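Q: What residues go here?
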């Protein structure tokens, strides 16, 4: 399955919010050259919540076509409507993705049985590799280990992105399900520890701005070289915090703009990074040698 350094790709936009496909193409090429193992197209970092379904699939299809088999593509296809999640997942499969990433249904706070039946319905409806995505800090619902355990037995469910940042819990999850599905980190601050505990990769925001460094850290961690992974990660560890100084993807889009990789567009209700935070993030990018 897809492992290693996986970027949760930001979606470039013009000031009016329209998707900037030329900048998107350049970002894809940057990740191919840097050795990123896979791209998540229109995940939550890609502003999936504010792209309509037609735009969503157009961006996923564009990324697949531009990648042209040189880098794996994971379509972000989660939704808080099971019917919509099935439609997006089917469309992403038709576009040629290697897998789909489905965030837990947000806002409506389903029960654990609801989470199980939601993912079961998608897995049974669409024959494409599917990754669960547990990020309770954003969805207001936490997928319990028992629920993951049940889902791990279903055909087409191949991995879980664990963005809880809870390492003891992550170790328990790895021990419980890693014989059936991969556990991936979804938390840049703690991903090294989780990978050294047995996680198979990291779906990363920081990889947007430091793709080569994140690939190197993941390679070292997968090889079990804790000292090397920690050494490389130390040079960018401050970014793991600074890129979350406001709600994701506000800081990372501003950082990419500052690096000349995209315009400043972002869709309401998100707004550009606050002026008071820009100096610190700019200093962080300089410290990492990215400006």
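A:
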């Amino acid at each position: 399955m897809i492992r290693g350094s996986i970027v949760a790709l930001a979606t470039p936009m013009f000031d009016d919010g329209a998707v900037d496909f030329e900048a998107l193409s350049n970002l894809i090429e940057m990740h191919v050259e840097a050795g990123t193992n896979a791209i998540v197209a229109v995940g939550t970092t890609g502003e999936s919540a504010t792209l309509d379904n037609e735009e969503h699939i157009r961006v996923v299809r564009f990324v697949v076509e531009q990648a042209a088999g040189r880098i794996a593509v994971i379509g972000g296809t989660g939704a808080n409507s099971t019917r919509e999640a099935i439609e997006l997942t089917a469309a992403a499969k038709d576009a040629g993705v290697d897998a789909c990433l489905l965030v837990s249904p947000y806002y409506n706070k389903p029960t654990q049985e609801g989470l199980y039946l939601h993912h079961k319905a998608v897995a049974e409806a669409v024959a494409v590799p599917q990754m669960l995505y547990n990020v309770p800090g954003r969805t207001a619902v936490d997928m319990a280990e028992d629920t993951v355990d049940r889902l791990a037995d279903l055909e087409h469910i191949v991995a879980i992105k664990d963005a809880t940042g809870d390492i003891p819990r992550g170790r328990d999850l790895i021990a419980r399900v890693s014989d059936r599905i991969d556990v991936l980190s979804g938390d840049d601050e703690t991903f090294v520890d989780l990978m050294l505990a047995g996680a198979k990769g990291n779906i990363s925001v920081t990889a947007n701005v430091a793709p080569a460094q994140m690939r190197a850290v993941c390679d070292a961690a997968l090889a079990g070289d804790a000292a090397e992974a920690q050494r490389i990660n130390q040079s960018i560890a401050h970014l793991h915090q600074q890129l979350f100084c406001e709600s994701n993807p506000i800081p990372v889009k501003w950082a990419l703009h500052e690096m000349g990789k995209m315009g400043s567009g972002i869709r309401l209700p998100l707004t550009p990074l606050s002026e008071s935070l820009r100096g610190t993030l700019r200093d962080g990018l300089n410290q990492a040698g990215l400006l």
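A: Context that may help when evaluating the design: The two ends are 34 Å apart (CA to CA). The first helix runs from residue 21 to 34.
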